Amino acid sequence: MMPFQIVVLWSDVLIWLLVLVAIGLGVIVARNAPLRAAWQRVGASRVGMASATVLLVFLGIGLLDSIHYRVALEGKAGQKTSYGIEVLSVLDALATPLRTRLEKTYSAPFATRLYAKETIDLPDGGTVRDYPRLRFGGKHLGDREDDVFQDAGTTAFRFAVLALLGWLGLAAALTGLIARRGLATHHGAWSDIWQGRTSFAWNAVLGTLLAIVVLTVPLLGLAGQYHVFGTDKVGQDVLYQVLKSVRTGLIIGLVTTLVMLPLAIVLGIVAGYFRGWVDDVIQYAYTVLNSIPGVLLIAAAVLMMQVVIDSHPQWFATAAERADLRLLALCFILGMTSWTGLCRLLRGETLKLRELEYIQAAQAFGVSSGRIILRHILPNLMHIVIIALVMDFSGLVLAEAVLSYVGIGVDPSMTSFGTMINNARMELGREPVVWWSLAAAFTTMFILVLAANLFADAVRDAFDPRAA
Question: What's the predicted TM-score (pTM) here?
Answer without folding.
Answer: 0.87
